[in-house]
Amino acid sequence: MTTAVTDNAARKRYEITEDGEQVGFLTYRLGNGFIDLIHSEVDRNHGGRGLAGILVRFALDDARARGLAVVPFCPYGASFIGEHRDGYVDLVPEERREQFGLAD
Fold it and tell me: What pLDDT does residue 104 have?
């Protein structure tokens, strides 16, 4: 199976596909120097295979490449950052980390 993630800027969301079929998305809101991760969803028929993690990792890597701070309102996104602190917690502004359970 071929998995791909793209930024659908017109719809303000990252989309994940398998063999060309959209199976999930992560909505966002862009601000001046930051991106709010709002809500992630993976089709239940495709769940349990790590697709949400691939989707969130793509969004976080994209934010880093674009020099954006991340505000993870999406519970899965905040959890993913917490589980991968060494790679991603620095994207969340220090003064916002406690709000998402990411303070040291």
Answer: 81
